[in-house]
Amino acid sequence: VPKKLVTTVSGCADEALAGLVACNPGLRLLRGHRVVLRDDLPAIRGRVALLSGGGSGHEPAHAGYIGKGMLTGVVAGAVFASPSVGSVLAAIRAVAWAGAAGILLIVKNYTGDRLNFGMALERARAEGVDVRMVVVGDDCAFATPGKAGRRGICGTVLIHKVAGALAEAGASLDEIEKKVMAAAKVMGTLGLSLSPCSIPGSKPSFQLAEDEMELGLGIHGEAGVRRMKVLPADKAVETMLKHMTDPSNASHLSLTPGSSVVLVVNNLGGLSGLELGIVAGAAVRCLENQGICIARALVGSFMTALEMAGVSLTLMRVDEELVRLIDAKTTAMAWPNIVTGPATTHREEVPVPTEEPRKPQDESGIGTELLSLVTYLPCLGFPWECAGMHLLSAGPGTARVQQVLERVCSTLLDMQDKLNELDREAGDGDCGHTHARAAQAIQEWMRSRPPPAAPAQLLSALADVLLEQMGGSSGVLYGLFLTAAAQSLRGRSDPPAWADAMDAGIEAMQRYGGAAPGDRTMLDSLFAAAQALHSLRSSSADLLQVLAAAVQSAEAAAEATSHMKAGAGRASYIRSSRLEQPDPGAVAVAAVLGAVLK
């Protein structure tokens, strides 16, 4: 049985409603019933009241849509179970006694909901209450719907919104009933899932293989109409929209080029926000390619099925009046408060401000010894940079620079899997991917333009590339290092300047990153190499010996991180007993230094 974060299985529906009401001052529970009502019931006097509801497990539906401009109240059942007749009747009486000028019940097309809401309606009418019921069936899954008709799913939320806006504007019960029934007829929804869901205390409702997805499933864990292999998001969306609009499907929604729609991209509960955004973009592109205008797009969790890792798409064909009703203000907590306007993949981008071109740095007077230094030292410990230096203009060191940098890049790409494996011990397992991405970005940058010859300009340019392309905290740290080192090198070309640049870069990383030597980070290898490079401040220093010492120090420091307790970075949240391997960032730095002097 899947794990659930509940207090008791039997009380989870009541506790969820109690938590919602506790955190929202605009909501109140009806004593003795699983009913939630607006806090300002006197405000509905003389207006039509709207009640809806159904089983729990679909949060934020239905209580999340209570508020001015949407529902007056909801009646909740247990998880995936219809509410009782007694509770529905109690909700009807509560809003009737508050002075409502008629009551409309908005019910999803499920047998249990129709029966319980319908029975309560009959009893309320017997008491003299003017109450009507609209049954919503928006499911496009079944090509030949059975006697039960189309299921009511996420499109019901749009009906809540349309009815709520009309009621808030003072429309009569007759007008609201007529207009929401018309809106329900130009709407369709289809679900797709990568996983089933499970009621607290129970096993999943069905099983899906690792490589399978389910099309056309309901919101109560029931299986769909078609099981297929997992598709890329864009192909999955195309499949969904084709099924929804296929004229051979009796429950399809008719769309023609030029049609205007409201699109709802609904998380069925367990899909990540990342995936939801990808699906939303794919849906907009697909509809645009068919000549459909997306007047509004709503993306989020609107009507879920517990933890189901899936998505549903809802389309409502709209005119100006329906768009105006969708746009009308509401205080309902689950309705998105966004800027209104059409959805499009062709939105104009904000132009990037152009940077003033830097003045070339005068490199005259750099002798043979410094050319040798420039060949090696700018690469020390910085894998992002080694992929970026190509040719330092014309001169005796050009071929050597290119050879060294190509070897460093090969080393980084060959280590991608190893670095990822080390990172899985203490992070998210992407250290190798991150370094490879940086190297590839710099290679692409070099193909597009010749790198600057001046060291300070080169480091600044590489910092820009990494900050834009590398990603993660590593990209920012490397960008900080290169930016600070470049500042230290401006106007200087002597060997001690490189030692100063190394120190400046490390100081910037420490100031913003918070790590220190001994914290089990890439800084350990960099700091060890920097200490060895301090010998460059001596006029008698042997360059190759200094470099060799820097490499040895970095390699020893990287290996030593396997015995350190992490004091910074993501690894600091992991128990020390699990950190038995060296830090991947420190290993990457040491490996690059070793490649430089092979």
From TrEMBL:
What superkingdom heads the lineage? Eukaryota
Biased composition annotated in UniProt, kind: Basic and acidic residues: 345-362
User: Which residue ranges does the record assign to the DhaL domain?
Assistant: 399-598
ATP-binding keyword on record:
yes
Cellular component, GO annotation: cytosol
One GO term in the molecular function aspect is: ATP binding
Limits of the DhaK domain: 8-335
- NCBIfam families associated with the record: PRK14479.1
Subunit and partners: Homodimer. Interacts with IFIH1 (via the CARD domains), the interaction is inhibited by viral infection.
User: What protein name applies here?
Assistant: Triokinase/FMN cyclase
Q: Which organism is it from?
A: Elachura formosa
